[in-house]
Amino acid sequence: MPTVSPLRRKIALDAIDKALIAAVQGGLPLCERPYAVIAQQLGLEEQTVITRLQRLQEQGAIKRFGVIVRHHELGYRANAMVVFDVHDDDVARLGHCIGKFEYVTLCYRRPRVLPDWPYNLFCMIHGKDRDAVLAHVAELRQRCGLEDVPHAVLFSKRRFKQRGAVYRTEDKPKTAIEA
């Protein structure tokens, strides 16, 4: 019997799970005990919130918690998406190598769109200025053995609002964009 991928299996959510997901998807409160604040908002105990969020992560309903850093406010004025055209068999290995660098904030695979877009490995690098970003690109190309691999450095020209995932439950109708 075939197994169902954790990404495709349906997870049953009760009303408390749905309320909890809605409460955290906009970000945690910036305070010493954010789970206690959420618990109070939902009429739950703090430990219940923590336990349920852990269960939702274990089940795959929540993939991960992360921090959205507003790089510009921290003095990072140059941002670049660096794209590579690597052999498909090398993507995982090279992606792990690139992802080890502290200045790489994202690293992921995307399909090529030939003949116009040959790149299949992407990473985001933030730096104080363009020269710092280019120095980081040179370092990771050298240290990951990417010197002879076709690549492009695409600097951002404008900033967009950064936010985390927004989850939809069966109770909420799809918008035209989601459909």
Describe this structure in words.
By secondary structure, the chain is of the alpha+beta class. It has 2 domains: 45 residues, Arc Repressor Mutant, subunit A (Orthogonal Bundle); 85 residues, Alpha-Beta Plaits, CATH 3.30.70.920. It has 5 helices and 4 strands; from the N terminus they run H-H-H-E-H-E-E-H-E. It has a 4-stranded antiparallel β-sheet with strand order 2-3-1-4. Helix 2 packs across helix 3. The two termini are 31 Å apart. The N terminus and C terminus are likely disordered.
Summary of the model, kept short:
This protein has 179 residues and is an alpha+beta fold.
Task: Describe the SSE topology.
Layout: H1 15-24, H2 34-42, H3 46-59, E1 78-84, H4 91-99, E2 104-109, E3 121-127, H5 130-143, E4 151-155
Antiparallel strand pairs: 1-3, 1-4, 2-3
Helix pairs in contact: 2-3
The run of helices and strands is HHHEHEEHE
Helix content: 25-40%
Number of strands: 4
CATH superfamily of the largest domain: Lrp/AsnC effector binding domain/regulation of amino acid metabolism (RAM) domain
Helix count from the secondary structure assignment? 5
The major beta sheet can be summarized as: 4 strands, antiparallel
Share of β-strand residues:
5-15%
CATH class of the largest domain: Alpha Beta
Estimate the mean pLDDT confidence.
85
**Sequence of strands across the biggest β-sheet:** 2-3-1-4
The domain tally reads 2
The geometry reads as elongated
Question: What gyration radius follows from the Cα positions, in whole Å?
Answer: 20 Å
Oligomer state equals: single chain
Q: In whole angstroms, how far apart are the ends?
A: 31 Å
Q: CATH fold name of the largest domain, please?
A: Alpha-Beta Plaits
Tell me which CATH architecture of the largest domain applies here: 2-Layer Sandwich
By secondary-structure content and strand pairing, the structural class works out as alpha+beta
